């Protein structure tokens, strides 16, 4: 046996396969255990899996569950603000891409963050006496195991393993996932889907979908999107090793809309607010924009206005607000549909209002939309009355 190549003495492609498998296990540990189970509690993993993934994360990064969960929860609580631990909108893309791990390290040392956002994470004897007391022992274990099993090529595998989380999670997802890509939903932050097929990073590539529905165990929403993390969950669920607690809601529409808005209709609109807002963009804002563009002399300006009209106002800078104000002042139909969109959004922001008051506001919105004289808006108001909650 050639001990330079370890106990396993693999071929070249054997080492490549081992590296890919180990990185995928790391991605599974991050997305299934740290993210969907521990941070958002959309998934219940079997205790054996939880212990395995917790051990694996400790070995490959020296990271503790409480620290990762706390930093991630704070990211959701203060997304794209000065208190966001790693927003490229605040720090710049270059810093988050190249120094994402450093930003994480700085935040995990914030005791206030750990206390406020780290609740409900493991605090057993193993955590206190091993993982917390000896944070570097896991990485030492990884180094020794890789050298014994893979020999000299194990050095490369060690480097790949240690770099996978800082590069993919801290850099790419936290960086590019809030900077470039496509958006299915206009949520209150800049999160994007990097690609529609989440394979390399455990499904975390579908980041806009996740921010739209943070408590969903499934990140894919469109038929042509694929979340490999959800595939793993389905396999584990069939084996009795995982239980799904929640997935993103899907709107149910009656074939014939109700004549009047009722309480069930109101609840369906609020629960499916991301779908409602997306439908409003497609069925009202964009058709009216195209109609105005065809009729106006300033067609190029209106074509460039799409992003201004569909993005949440809080994501627009001062110059963008000025451009939007100028466009709305020149085009009354666009101003009307934009105003109606903002009023509709007030329904799910009005958590301080009673159900009766919210119902009254939705009824008034539908009545005024149907009397607006804008065909697309009138049709959408009728469609809105068809929304119902999906069966549990």
Outline the structure in words.
- By secondary structure, the protein is mostly helical.
- The protein has helices at residues 12-39, 47-61, 65-77, 88-91, 93-108, 111-117, 125-131, 137-150, 153-175, 207-212, 228-238, 263-271, 273-295, 299-303, 306-310, 318-330, 332-349, 355-370, 375-384, and strands at residues 43-45, 197-198, 226-227, 242-244, 252-253, 387-388.
- It has 2 domains: 3-244, no CATH class; 253-388, no CATH class.
- It is built from 19 helices and 6 strands.
- The strands form 3 sheets. The chain has a two-stranded antiparallel sheet.
- Helix 10 (207-212) links the parallel strand 2 (197-198) and strand 3.
- Helix 3 (65-77) crosses helix 6 and helix 8 (137-150) packs across helix 9.
């Amino acid at each position: 046996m050639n001990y330079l190549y370890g106990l396993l003495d693999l071929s070249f492609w054997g080492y490549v396969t081992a590296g890919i498998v180990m990185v995928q296990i790391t991605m599974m540990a991050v997305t299934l255990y740290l993210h969907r189970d521990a941070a958002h509690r959309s998934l219940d993993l079997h205790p054996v899996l939880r212990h395995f993934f917790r051990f694996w994360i400790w070995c490959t990064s020296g990271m503790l569950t409480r620290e990762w969960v706390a930093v991630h929860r704070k990211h959701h609580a203060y997304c794209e603000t000065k208190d966001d631990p790693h927003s490229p909108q605040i720090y710049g893309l270059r810093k988050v891409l190249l120094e994402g791990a450093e930003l994480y390290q700085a935040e995990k040392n914030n005791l206030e963050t750990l206390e406020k956002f780290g609740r409900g994470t493991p605090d057993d004897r193993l955590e206190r006496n091993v993982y917390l007391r000896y944070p570097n022992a896991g990485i030492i274990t990884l180094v020794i195991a890789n050298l014994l099993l893979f020999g000299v090529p194990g050095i490369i595998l060690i480097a790949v393993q240690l770099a996978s989380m800082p590069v993919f999670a801290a850099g790419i997802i936290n960086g590019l996932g809030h900077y470039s890509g496509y958006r299915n939903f206009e949520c209150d932050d800049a999160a994007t889907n990097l690609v529609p097929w989440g394979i390399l990073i455990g499904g975390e590539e579908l980041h806009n979908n996740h921010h739209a529905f943070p408590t969903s165990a499934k990140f894919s929403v469109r038929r042509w999107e694929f979340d490999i993390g959800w595939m793993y969950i389905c396999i584990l669920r069939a084996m009795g090793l995982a239980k799904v607690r929640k997935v993103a809601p899907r709107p149910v529409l009656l074939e014939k809309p109700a004549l009047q808005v009722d309480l069930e209709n109101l609840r369906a609109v609020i629960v499916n607010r991301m779908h409602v807002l997306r439908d409003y963009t497609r069925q009202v804002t964009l058709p009216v924009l195209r109609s105005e563009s065809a009729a106006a002399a300033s067609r190029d300006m209106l074509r460039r206005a799409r992003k201004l009209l569909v993005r949440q106002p809080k994501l627009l800078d001062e110059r963008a607000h000025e451009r939007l104000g100028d466009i709305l002042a020149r085009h009354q139909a666009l101003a009307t549909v934009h105003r109606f969109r903002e009023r509709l959004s007030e329904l799910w922001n009005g958590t301080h209002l009673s159900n009766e008051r919210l119902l009254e506001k939705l009824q008034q919105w539908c009545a005024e939309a149907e009397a607006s004289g804008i065909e697309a808006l009138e049709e959408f108001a009728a469609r809105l009355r068809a929304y119902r909650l999906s069966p549990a």
